[in-house]
Amino acid sequence: LCLKLIDSRDNSQTVIRLSKKASTRQLYEKVCKLRGIEQEKARIWDYFNKQRSTSPLDVSDQTLDDAMLQMDQDILLEVQVDNGISMDSTGNDLALVPIEPSRSSLTIAGGPALSNGHTTGYRFNQYPGSSFGSTFMDMDDGYDSYNTAKKGEKGGLAGLQNLGNTCFMNSALQCLVHTPDLAQYFLGDYSDEINTENPLGMHGELALAFGDLLRKLWSSGRAAVAPRAFKGKLARFAPQFSGYNQHDSQELLAFLLDGLHEDLNRVKQKPYIEMKDSGGRPDEEVANECWKNHKARNDSLIVDVFQGQYKSTLVCPVCSKVSITFDPFMYLTLPLPSTVTRTMTVTVFYANGSGLPMPFTVTLMKHGCCKDLILALSTACCLKIDEGLLLAEVYNHQIFRFFENPAELISSIKDDEHIVAYRFDRKQGGKIKLEIVNRWQEKSASDYLKGSERKLFGAPLVTYLEEEHLSGADIDIAVSKLLSPLRRTYSSAKAHGGKENGFLPEVIDELSNSHNESVETAELEDLCSRELSFQLSLTDERISSCKPIQKDSILKPGKHIKVLLDWTDDVHELYDPSYIKDLPVVHKTGFTVKKTRQEAISLFSCLDAFLTEEPLGPDDMWYCPQCKEHRQATKKLDLWMLPDVLVFHLKRFSYSRYLKNKLDTFVNFPILNLDLSKYMKSKDGESYVYDLFAISNHYGGLGGGHYTAYAKVNA
C-alpha cells in the first residue's frame, strides 16, 4: 500500500509504503521512526477523503487490509505533547478528548443498538477467526450516525463514491439496493437468517456488509456514501475484484447474488439428492421434482426473489436419445442476434455449365454445420428438388478441400477463406469428379527471350462425368460445356481469318448469336470429329507433374480427375475469364470496412436467439447414456418458471482470437408491461408481465469506459 501521511502539526505530507498484510502495529512503528516520536504519544487516524474516522487505528495485529486502508489514501498523525495538548500547524492548542462512538439507534442485521462498539443484549455468533463486528472500523464511512433524509424527502437517493475504477461495483449495487424485496428485507430484522456455518458462503459477513451499506443508502438523504467497508469484504472473499482495475458489472452482480444466497441460506445441512432422468414422465412432474430437490438444498431470499427454472432438452445425433432436465437460473444471459449468427458469402457455380457463377450471402447460426449452410444456400439460389450442392474451399486457385461431411461445423471455415458451391444434378452425384484448374501465360518483354511463365488463376471448375472409360475428347467436351456461360458476345459483322482454336469463323459467329440447344448439341458432335479445342494437361493433386491430353488419350478411372486448362490467346478471344476471377471472401472484416451503426433490435429477438436450438461445441460434448460415448448433441432451452425479479444480461462484449469488441447495437425494450407469457412452456395459466425498475449502463469500449445506473425509487 502507498499511504499519504499528513502530520497535523505542520500539515507536511509523506508517502508511506507498506504491505497490505502488514499490521497496524507495524504502521505505527514505521511512522514513529520516520517522524522521530514516541509511539505512546502518537495517534494515527483513517483520513479517507479528508474525513477523520470515528476512532484512531488501534495498535494491534490487525492487517491494514482488514482496517480498510486503501491505495493512495490519506492517514492523519496527531502527537500528544507533555501537557496533554497537541499543537496544530498554526500553534493553537487542540484539546485531546477521548473519542467514543455516538449512541444511536444504529443496529446490525436488525439487532439491538450498538453502544461503544458492542451490542447490548445481542451478540452475533462469529465464526473462528472472523473479524466482523470486532471493531467499529468495519463499517462504511459515516456509519457512526445516520444522516436522516430531509423531512418529506424520499429515501434511496444517495450516491456511491467512486473509490477508483469501482463504477462497475457501484452500478450493480445501486440496482440491487433499489430492488424492493431486498430493500424491505435488509431494512428489517434478518439476523436469524444469517448462515455462519455454510462452507460455500462468507460466514454471513458479505450479507452483513451489504445490509449495512443498504441501510446507509436508504437513510443518508442525498449525501454520497463511500463503500469502503463493503469493497474490503468483497476483495477478501473474491480476490478477483481486489485492487482498482476495471471489471465487468455483471460478473460482480453474479458473484454478489450467489454470495448473498449462501450467506442467507436457511438450509444448514444440505442433504445429498441423486438426480433422476426424466424417463418419459410428464414435464410437470419432472419440473416439480427438480425444483423441490433444489429448494431442499437452497432456500433463501435470493432464491425466492431472483431464481427461476428453465427446461433443457438434449438430443443425441446418433441414437436420437432425448434427455430432459430442469435447471434453476439466477439471470438470463441474452446474446445479441449478431453474436449468435454469422454472415457468409459463397459463390455458386453450375456443374453443368448452364449459368454464370453467382455469389450469395446467407445468415446462419455460428454453431451450425455444413448441412445448415447448404440449406441456406439452397433457398438463396432457388435450388431445384433434383439438384444438390457440393461445398469446397478454394486456395491458391485450386480445390483445397471438399466439405463432404454435412455434420462438419462451419466454425472450421474462417472469414478470410474463399468458399464455393457447385450446383449439380443428384443423378450424377457420386460419379467421377472432374476438376478443371485454370492456368495462363504471363507475358513481358523478357518473356519473349526466356519463355513465359505459367500461373494459376481464377476459381476451379468442377463437374461430374458418368463414363468409366474416359478419353481426351470426353474431357474436351466437358470443358467446353463448363466454359459455355463465359462465352463472349460477338457481332455478326466481325470477320476472322482462318480457324479460331479449332472453330471455323462461320461456326464462331453462329454459336455467338444463337442459344438454340440443338445448335449447341450439333457443335459438340462436330467437335468430336476435330482436334481438341483446348490445351489440356492431366496433373496430380499437388500439380507437381503435367501430362498433355490428346484426343485419343485414355484416362485411368478414378473418383477424382484433375486437369489443367491453359488459357491461350485463342481461348481469351472466345471466353471472358473475369467471371471466375476475384472470388469474394466468406466475410470481409477489418479496419478497411466502414463501420455502420446496426439497426435496432428488440429484447424479444435477443430472447429468441437465446432459446434457439443449437448444437453443442466440440469442447462441450454431452455423454449419451445410451451410446455410452460423448456426442455433439443439439441443445434447446425453454423457460419454465420465471422469478419475481428477472435479471437480463445483454452480451455486448465479444472475444475472438484476434479481436475484442463491444457491440453497440441498440436494443429496444419496454419500460412497462414486458409480457413474457408466450415464452412459457409451463401451462400454469399465470401472466408473466414485468416493469423495469433498474438498469446498469456501460459507456465506452473495452479499452476504457464507465458504468452508471438508473433506478426507480418507489413512493
TrEMBL record:
One GO MF annotation is: cysteine-type deubiquitinase activity
Write down a Pfam family by its short name: UCH
**Alphabetic keyword roster:** Hydrolase, Protease, Thiol protease, Ubl conjugation pathway
Catalytic activity annotation: Thiol-dependent hydrolysis of ester, thioester, amide, peptide and isopeptide bonds formed by the C-terminal Gly of ubiquitin (a 76-residue protein attached to proteins as an intracellular targeting signal)
Q: Does the keyword Protease apply?
A: yes
- Residue ranges occupied by any USP domain in the UniProt entry: 158-715
What GO terms describe the biological role, i.e. biological process, of this protein?
protein deubiquitination; proteolysis
Q: Where is the signal peptide?
A: none
| Gene3D superfamilies recorded | Cysteine proteinases, Phosphatidylinositol 3-kinase Catalytic Subunit, Chain A, domain 1
**EC number of this enzyme:** 3.4.19.12
Under which main EC class is this enzyme filed? hydrolase
Q: In the UniProt record, does the keyword Protease occur?
A: yes
Q: What does this protein do?
A: Recognizes and hydrolyzes the peptide bond at the C-terminal Gly of ubiquitin. Involved in the processing of poly-ubiquitin precursors as well as that of ubiquitinated proteins.
Q: Which family does it belong to?
A: Belongs to the peptidase C19 family.
Protein name in the entry: Ubiquitin carboxyl-terminal hydrolase
Traced from the root, the source organism's taxonomic lineage reads: Eukaryota, Viridiplantae, Streptophyta, Embryophyta, Tracheophyta
